[in-house]
Amino acid sequence: MVDTDRITGAAKELGGKVQGAVGDLTGSKRDSVEGRARETAGQAENLYGQAKDTVRDAAEHVADTARDIGGRIRDTVGGFVGSDDIEHRARQAQGAAGEQFDRAQRSVRRAADDASDYAEDAYDRGGHYLRRGTREVSHQVAEYPLASLLIAGAVGFGLGLLVNATRD
Asked: CA geometry: angle at 108 spanning 46 and 110, to 5°?
């Protein structure tokens, strides 16, 4: 199952790329910077979702393997019922398998925590750049309101042509 953070992150990343490209084409620093910031935030959210998916898959794999080992031990012990030595060894093996499962589970959780920390840091940085870009855009719009209005109108007109052209 794909994490929703991956989907929304990819959408934000795509939207940021489009906005950045439009800003580059029109010469609008505001749109370019804001688009790059949205793209970065989307990448961070996508990476966070990927990390969550990876950890979830690894944990499921470890749990499945542990269940499989436990079942095999149970089946093997079932064939030797009556021998105290074999039952004792089987219990030891089952305990060792349980310890291995616990160790693997701790390792997966540690990896998940590290991945989550890295993704959260990237997400925070993306938010910082987005806020910084937003301030720059606001400054540019306040300084050049007419040019900003003309650029926004041209972009809206161009998008309208694109949407209308796909319907015909």
From this structure: 85
For residue range 94-127, list pLDDT tens digits in order: 777 778 877 877 877 787 777 777 777 877 887 7
Output the pLDDT for position 78: 61
Scanning the structure block, which residue is given the tokens 């209308």? 164
DSSP 82-148: T-HHHHHHHHHHHHHHHHHHHHHHHHHHHHHHHHHHHHHHHHHHHHHHHHHHHHHHHHHHHH-HHHH
What does the alpha-carbon distance between residue 43 and residue 2 come to, in Å, rounded to a whole number? 15
- Cα dihedral 30, 36, 40, 41 sign: positive
